[in-house]
Specification:
This protein is an alpha/beta fold and 570 residues long. The chain has 3 domains: 222 residues, no CATH class; 92 residues, no CATH class; 133 residues, no CATH class. The protein contains 26 helices and 10 strands. The chain has a 6-stranded mixed β-sheet with strand order 1-8-3-4-2-7. A two-stranded antiparallel ribbon has the order 5-6. It is elongated, with a radius of gyration of 33 Å.
Length: 570
């Protein structure tokens, strides 16, 4: 696409947006009207400030798709445009009310008609209904044109309306009351027309972004990074997919919309693009974030493909949800999987998802899937947690592993291990990296430290130790703030090098730490260590002193143990 065709931008007020015969339509399956009272109140307060200061008020960006010469699709901005149209409608309604009450009737009817044709639409001479300048989505437009625009009370009452219909009617009622309150003293139609023409229409300023198609809109959206935009990446993806089903009747469309709602309820609206990309990367060659919409736009072009994609997404959504929550009951069917998912959550890893989504399709035995999760957790501890390599290589490696499993007629766990070797930190490197590892004892790093120490303790003592279940505290052998006596072996520089090394940490019962150890010198701390049930502390009682060399040696010993704990196997 030529750069000049990607987008055009202008700074426009409402009068410029709605003038010269321009009209706008919200795509049929874009989300419904959702602004509430707090939004209407904020807009009204802004208008009163503008009226006092006579300064322009920035209303944000709106993204428009060029459909015909003067007709645009509203990709982003429908909430603001719909609300402002409703406000102007309330002003027009007030002018007609003044005329009906005998207040300068001819002039006020003329003012109302001019405002109506300028900002809302022209009346059809046969039906006397307005051909609107703004057409809302499939769910909201009928109600907006037949009830709100006609000032016709809903026959079913507010409780009988759908959520967005009720909001549209309440919006109209809110501004009708505000306008009546504002102009009740003067009752001058000229003041109302001035408020619309000089304040609402000329002082509210938009950045109008006009694009050629939805692919361009997606590119613009990524560039703007969603700041200030009402629409989300999920909305854009949904609009495209459902546009392929536009010929269906409403009853035929309802199951699709319900399926979409089930999927997004599981993965979250904000998380849907990431889930979709993980899904694609479990089935096809690697897709980068910036290629997501283009890939869908290219590969999903028919209604049958939409149905197939949604079915696969719904199946994968349960897995994606569960992979983000190790406490999910989903894992009760996969013995041992909860712990591996917990580790992946602890190290904030997500790149493994495509491999797991592929594994669920190719392995029938739940224990095989649990073993794949173990591989992923092991890789993550080595790659992310200890060796701290750049995560750039992870996504492509997991994508490659997922595709290898799908291509193989009889996929095996050995094949999965083989495919992950490129991101599995080799023993020699891992041991060296572990030997130099430093971690803070607070926050998320503190939780990871506690996990590493508990696993080493379990290996050393043979006891069933869990960082979640144990009551031990993480003990600094060399305190973070040591006293003046007892730590002469550590210069200030040596202290800074040592106190956050893994070799300087241990596990100690809370009461022993508080009652005996604390910031005491090493000889005093040994009294607590000798009483501890934890091997990592009890072994310290045999040392005559604590030095920087001891910290380094102890951590090297830990690294040798770690190498066997976090092993994927041959």
């Amino acid at each position: 696409m030529a750069r000049s065709a990607l987008l055009n931008t202008d700074t426009e007020d409402l009068k410029e947006l709605l003038s010269n015969g321009k009209s706008y339509a919200v795509p049929p399956y874009q989300r419904d009207y959702s602004w509430k009272r707090e939004h209407w109140e904020d807009l009204w307060d802004d208008l009163e400030t503008v009226e006092q200061t006579r300064e322009d008020h920035y209303m944000g960006a709106i993204v428009l798709e060029s459909i015909e010469r003067k007709h645009f699709g509203v990709i982003d901005g429908q909430q603001r445009l719909a609300t402002l149209s409703t406000l102007i409608l309330a002003c027009v309604d007030y002018l007609y009310g003044l005329a009906d009450d005998g207040e300068d009737p001819a002039a006020n009817k003329e003012r109302a008609a001019l405002l109506e044709s300028s900002y809302l639409g022209s009346k059809d001479p046969a039906s006397l209904r307005i051909n609107p300048k703004l057409k809302l989505n499939r769910n909201d437009d009928d109600f907006c044109q037949l009830n709100v625009a006609q000032r016709k009370e809903p026959l079913v009452g507010l409780r009988g309306l759908r959520g967005s219909e009720r909001l549209l009617w309440e919006c109209y009622c809110f501004f009708r009351e505000k306008v009546a309150e504002k102009f009740s003293r003067s009752k001058k139609g000229q003041d109302v027309a001035t408020f619309v023409g000089e304040i609402i229409a000329e002082r509210l300023v938009f950045i109008s972004v006009r694009v050629q198609d939805q692919l361009s809109a997606y590119t613009v959206f990524e560039t703007l990074n969603a700041r200030g935009l009402e629409l989300t990446e999920t909305d854009l993806l949904k609009n495209y997919l459902l546009s392929l089903a536009e010929r269906l009747s409403r009853s035929q469309m309802d199951p699709i919309l319900r399926q979409w709602a089930r999927i997004t309820a599981r993965v979250g609206v904000a998380g849907f693009p990431q889930f979709l990309r993980h899904h694609l990367n479990s089935e096809r060659e690697y897709v980068r974030q910036k290629q997501l919409f283009k890939t869908i736009n290219r590969d999903i072009t028919s209604l049958s493909q939409v149905f197939g994609l949604l079915d696969r997404l719904e199946k994968g959504a349960a897995w994606f949800e569960a992979l983000g929550d190790y406490e999910n009951e989903f894992w009760l069917d996969f013995q041992g999987a909860k712990e591996h998912v917990r580790v992946l959550n602890l190290f904030h890893v997500s790149q493994h998802v495509p491999l797991v989504l592929a594994a669920k399709d190719v392995f029938s035995d739940p224990q095989d899937i649990t073993e794949v999760l173990r591989y992923c957790a092991t890789v993550s501890v080595r790659f992310n947690g200890v060796s701290r390599r750049s995560t750039h290589a992870l996504e492509e490696a997991y994508n490659s592993a997922a595709l290898a499993l799908r291509r193989e007629a009889n996929p095996t766990l050995a094949l999965a291990r083989k495919e992950l070797r490129s991101i599995y930190i080799a023993d020699e490197e891992f041991e060296a990296d572990f030997s130099g590892l430093r971690l803070k004892s607070k926050g998320i790093l503190g939780k990871r430290l506690r996990y590493l120490l508990a696993k080493i303790e379990k290996q050393r003592s043979g006891a069933d130790v869990s960082d979640e279940a144990m009551s031990a505290t993480v003990e600094h052998i060399l305190p973070e703030n040591p006293g003046e006596a007892g730590w002469e072996h550590f210069t200030p520089e040596a202290h800074d090098r040592s106190y956050e090394r893994l070799g300087n940490y241990s596990l100690l019962e809370r009461n022993l730490n508080q009652r005996i150890a604390g910031n005491a010198d090493f000889s005093q701390k040994k009294l607590a260590y000798s009483q501890s049930q934890y091997a990592l502390s009890k072994e310290l009682d045999q040392l005559p002193e604590w030095t920087e060399d001891r910290v380094i040696k102890r951590q090297r010993e830990m690294a040798k143990i770690a190498k066997s704990i976090w092993s994927m196997g041959p």
